[in-house]
Amino acid sequence: STSGFMYQNMPRLAKVKYVLPYQVFEIEDYDLKYLLILRLGIAYRDVTHLACANPSTLVKLLAVLAANRTSLLRDIMQQTFSRIDELSIDVQAVIRPRLSCTPRRVTELQTILTLPQPTFADLWPELQMVSTWTGGSCGIPLARVRPTLPPTARVAELGYLASELRGTLMVDLNRNIGIPTIHENFFEFVERDDWDAGRQAFLTIDQLTEGKEYYIFPTTATGLYRYFMNDIVRVTGLFYNTPTIEFVQKGKGVTNITGEKLYESQVIAAVRIAEDATGFVSGFFLMLADTVQERYRLVVECATPTDNWAQQTVESIERHLMAGNVEYAAKRASGRLQPLELLPVRSGTGDAYKQHCLQQGQREGQFKLIALQYQADCPFPFAEFRVDLTTHSVD
Fold first, then answer.
1. pTM across the whole model
2. Contact between 281 and 302 (Cβ < 8 Å)
3. Of 257, 235, 234, nearest to 321 (Cα)?
4. Of 18, 25, 96, 380, whose CB count within 10 A is highest?
C-alpha cells in the first residue's frame, strides 16, 4: 500500500521517532500483530502521534487492550513478550531491544491496566494528534475513537491516499483542505451523475465546479493510464487557483432497488443524526439493499438493544433518508419501497465481518468498509450474529 511504502521509506531522522518497526506490520496473524503493537507502544508514556489509514484499527487496539490487560502487565513487568516464540526470527531480533520499560512507567501501567476499559488518554496523556481517514464510512469507527483521546488531541485527515497513488497533499489541517498531486499525476474527472448514467464526459481539473462530486481517473508516472479508481471525490474549494478535493465514498456505495438511487453518504449522515437523537453510537453499521423484499436492512452493532431504542433509530433514519432523497421518499410513499428494517447484532460483529473480508483477499491496511451494499453482494451471515430483539420496521 502507499501508506506502507511511505512508512517503510521515511527518512532515518523521522524513523527513529517511531515506536513500531515496519516489520511488525508484516505479521500475518491478525491478533498477534495487534497485541505486539500494544506491547511495544504502552512501554512509552510520551507518545504524541498515532497514525493509521483506517480508524477501525484504533477501535481494534482498544478491544485487544481491554481483553489482554493482565498478560500485557505481566509482560511489561518481566520486560518480555509472552508470544515472542510465535514470531519469525527476523521480527524477534528487531523487537527484543524494544521490550525494556522504565520502572516509573511500569508503576504507571500497574494502575492503568487495572482499569476495565483503558483509553488512549489513559495510556498516552501527551498524545497530540491522530492522523487517519475521517471521511466516508471511516467516520463510523472514528466516532468511537474520539471520546478515548486526550482533550487536547486533534484528529487530522490523512488525505486522499490509495494503493495506486497519493491523491492529495493536506495544506490546511484545521479545515482538512487537500490539493490534488498535480505535480506527480494527471487527473481526469467525470461528474457523478453522468458516470452513473453511462455518460463518459471527461473533465480536466481546471473544469471542476465547487460543491460537485466526481469520479476520479488518474494517469500516473508508474504506468496507470486513465485508471478507474471507483472513487468519488467532492470539490471543496480552491487553494489559489487549484481546486481542492476530498474523498466522499467508493463508487460501489450506491444502490437502487426501485429508482430511489440511495448513496452511502446519505446513509451515513442519516445514521449519524439518529445516533445524536438516541445518544447511542454504534461501532459498526452496514445498510443492505434487499432487491427481493424491496427494502433496506440496517445491520447495527448493539450489545443490549431495547425496543424503544430500535423504534427511535428506525424512525429517525427513515425520516432523514426521505428528507435527503426525494426519490426515496416518493418510493416509500407509493409503497414501491418497503419500510426500513433493523437487524441488531452483537458486539464484535464488525470485527468478524472485517476478518471475513480479509479472508476473501482484501489486505488489512487497504480495508475500507462500504457502508451501503446490495444484500446479494454481501454473503456474510449477519443473521447468525443477531441479538435477542424482534426486528422493528416503520409502516
1. 0.74
2. no
3. 257
4. 380
